[in-house]
Design a protein that fits this description.
Length: about 160
């Protein structure tokens, strides 16, 4: 168990994209045993309120967006997007992602979020097209669920790697 807050946040602060406050709150609770940490951090996000949740959603990058093209993603996001082949989009696919990203952000006020590890970019585009017409309430919940799934995959990588 890590007993230094800075080391703890350094290790777990990136699990929720650009949101070290989640790990900081988890540490301040105990700190929790690493085996309990995924559930505790999930609950912290669920209890945080809509404003904090919206800030968390907005911390996520566009899929196959300009940050990916310029190499400005976090290491975790770079790896996740590359695993789905998003770094190998055709020009047509990149245009589709760009158009969908803009439409989605205009509709919902945050980027489209999907746990992409283990998925192919064509499957992601299909999911994107289906979700862009959701209601704001449905999509907010889906985006939070996807953030939790991404966090679970990142925890798995931390504990296995």
């Amino acid at each position: 168990m890590i007993h230094n807050k800075y080391a703890y946040v350094d290790r777990f602060g990136g699990v929720y994209e650009h949101s070290p406050w989640v790990a900081e709150q988890a540490f301040d609770m105990g700190p929790p045993d690493p085996a309990e940490l995924p559930a505790i951090m999930r609950q912290i996000v669920e209890d945080a309120g809509k404003d904090a949740q919206l800030t968390l959603l907005r911390a996520h990058p566009d899929l196959a967006g300009k940050l990916a093209k310029t190499g400005e993603l976090t290491n975790e996001s770079t790896s996740e997007q590359a695993s789905a082949g998003l770094d190998q989009c055709t020009e047509e696919e990149f245009t589709a992602f760009t158009t969908l990203n803009e439409r989605y952000k205009t509709s919902f006020g945050f980027p489209y979020i999907l746990a992409v590890r283990g998925r192919h970019r064509t499957e992601i585009l299909e999911n994107f097209r289906a979700r862009v017409d959701n209601t704001p309430e449905v999509e907010f919940r889906e985006a939070l669920d996807q953030v939790h799934q991404i966090a679970a995959l990142r925890f798995e990588a931390l504990f296995m790697g």
